[in-house]
Design goal:
Organism: Allofournierella massiliensis
CATH architecture of the largest domain: 3-Layer(aba) Sandwich
Number of domains: 2
Strand order of the largest sheet: 2-1-3-6-7
Structural class: alpha/beta
Number of strands: 14
Order of helices and strands: EHEHEEEHEHEHEEEEHEHHEE
Keywords: DNA-binding, Phosphoprotein, Transcription, Transcription regulation, Two-component regulatory system
Protein name: Stage 0 sporulation protein A homolog
Distance between the termini: 47 Å
GO molecular function: phosphorelay response regulator activity; transcription cis-regulatory region binding
Oligomer: single chain
Shape: globular
Pfam families: Response_reg, Trans_reg_C
Number of helices: 8
Length: about 230
Amino acid sequence: METILLVEDDAALSEGIALAFSQQPYEFVRCATLAEARRALQTRVFSLILLDLGLPDGNGLELCRQLRDRRDPVPVLFLTANDTEYSEVAALEAGGDDYITKPFSLAVLRARVTAALRRRVPAGPELVEIGPFRFDFARLRFEKQGVEVVLSRTEQRLLQLLVKNRGQIVPRDTLLDQVWDGGEFVDENTLSVAVRRLRAKLEDDPRSPRYIQTVYGVGYIWKGNGDE
């Protein structure tokens, strides 16, 4: 059974979300504050986290950053009433996997949670060595010049699609479809942020990328073998 940590201070909404999933094989652990969530994370392993941005004792971004800093790849889906582009970009750059604006349809929430839990690194080469990089997709270990690079599940999927098709342009629609399971509820800004985060972790100069290059109006390409 999948275990989901729901961090939401609106008691009625929290109960409604849990009830919406009552017919599915998920166990919910509900918290109303960051402090409660941190205690839960110390004693349980979760399959996914639904995380409100605005909580009584802080911002959900803080918790997400802490998880990523300690190399925890658990999917994090942000819930928020703030629908600004700035807020969405901040959430994704903090390591979030998705961003859902309140009020939302419970059917859409179920679809996004199901998609996030279904995601796995796509089929392809399990071990790839390119120049300074060593990508072990079987063991989910990624290195640059022998130093481990920690990637979220979304970043892992994005990387493998680009590496598997290196030297070929991968259209934006293809990436949205394969990384986000159809991309029906994901906008292109989410892809742009994911690419930016991946560049920041792999490129020497993310502002002038050598490997992950943009083909404007089309998509992205992993350029070269890394040893030019």
